[in-house]
């Protein structure tokens, strides 16, 4: 039982590793909005599987659902920051990016409170608790199709200047947005002369070794500080 409990908890992180590793390739090929929509579908399927695990008396369904949740979270967490930042006007970009972290933390708090035995953590209601992750995914799945694709993605990766202008007008309203389009074009020109490193190349690059070590140490100490135990 201890082994199964440990696997159930940790398999979310394994799925997250796989999802985040493939996020760059998928976003370049299919776009951020489509990837977010697919991530929401995956989360809804995972929530349905976990919600039905008690009825079918199958702990394997919890393992599968947690793994799928991890893949969805690993894919959408970096995408949310990128997409929200890219569709926001320049004046609100910093604020919009900070809201992602705020709601990420708020979601953890709501999950911890909802998981108390007095609420959804009881013996009869825990399947609803595990299936509740599908609710925000469903909200985003319904509302996201009304948003356009990221303007920088349309211009930099698809070369669709008209589509970029249309998306900017839809997001920011009618007006003179040529300065923003020029900024995207400058970024595109800069990227042509910059080599995009893979994860393995990043780990081997001496110039980024200290920065990478600092990030690994900080991330590890957050996990070791007792927050998960609490």
From TrEMBL:
Its main location: membrane. GO terms for biological process: D-glucose import; dehydroascorbic acid transport. InterPro entries: GLUT, MFS_dom, MFS_sugar_transport-like, MFS_trans_sf, Sugar_transporter_CS. This is GTR5 protein. It comes from Bucco capensis (collared puffbird). Gene3D superfamilies: MFS general substrate transporter like domains. It is found in: Membrane. One of its GO terms (molecular function) is D-glucose transmembrane transporter activity. Keywords: Membrane, Transmembrane, Transmembrane helix. PANTHER family: MAJOR FACILITATOR SUPERFAMILY (MFS) PROFILE DOMAIN-CONTAINING PROTEIN (PTHR23503:SF54), SOLUTE CARRIER FAMILY 2 (PTHR23503). Residues 1-230 form the Major facilitator superfamily (MFS) profile domain. GO terms for cellular component: plasma membrane. The chain crosses the membrane at residues 6-23, 35-56. It is a multi-pass membrane protein. The gene is Slc2a5_1. Pfam families: Sugar_tr.
């Amino acid at each position: 039982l201890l082994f199964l409990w440990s696997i159930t908890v940790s398999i979310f992180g394994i799925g997250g590793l796989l999802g985040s590793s493939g996020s760059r390739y998928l976003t370049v090929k299919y776009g951020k909005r489509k990837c977010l929509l697919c991530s929401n579908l995956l989360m809804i399927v995972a929530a349905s599987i976990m919600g039905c695990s008690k009825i079918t008396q199958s702990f394997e369904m919890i393992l599968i659902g947690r793994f799928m949740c991890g893949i969805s979270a690993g894919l959408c967490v970096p995408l949310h920051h990128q997409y929200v930042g890219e569709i926001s006007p320049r004046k609100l970009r910093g604020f919009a990016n900070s809201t992602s972290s705020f709601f990420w933390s708020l979601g953890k708090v709501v999950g911890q409170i909802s998981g108390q035995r007095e609420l959804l953590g009881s013996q009869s209601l825990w399947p609803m608790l595990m299936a509740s992750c599908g609710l925000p995914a469903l909200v985003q799945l319904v509302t996201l199709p009304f948003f356009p694709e990221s303007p920088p993605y349309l211009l930099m990766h698809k070369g669709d200047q008209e589509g970029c202008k249309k998306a900017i007008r839809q997001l920011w309203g009618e007006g003179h947005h040529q300065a923003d389009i020029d900024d995207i074009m400058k970024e595109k020109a800069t990227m042509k002369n910059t080599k995009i490193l893979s994860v393995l190349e990043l780990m081997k690059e001496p110039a980024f070794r200290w920065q990478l070590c600092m990030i690994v140490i900080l991330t590890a100490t957050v996990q070791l500080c007792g927050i998960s135990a609490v």
